[in-house]
Fold this sequence. Notes:
By secondary structure, the chain is mainly α.
Amino acid sequence: MIFKRxxxxxxxxxxxxxxxxxxxxxxxREEPFAGADGQAEGVIVQSHPGYKPWFEPFWEPPSGxxxxxxxxxxxxxxxxxLAYYLGYRRARxxxxxxxxxxxxx
Length: 105
């Protein structure tokens, strides 16, 4: 029973990863998973051709894949810090519930 459920869940995860790649129109684009920043820049340049950005980035990743990896790493680190903090607070609350209160002299 549990193996059947796990198999179904794995199949769903694989389908969620593969189906977007099979959508017509995504595979023929130069960067199929371009971010909103790049798309917004294109719209701004079209509507205001003389627009100049306020500043330039001091480092540009060599490729979109590296930029995506750095973004995913940043998200993972943030999630790890948040999960650690929430786990710490929960464990601290449980410990304080179980420990006897200190009597002041």
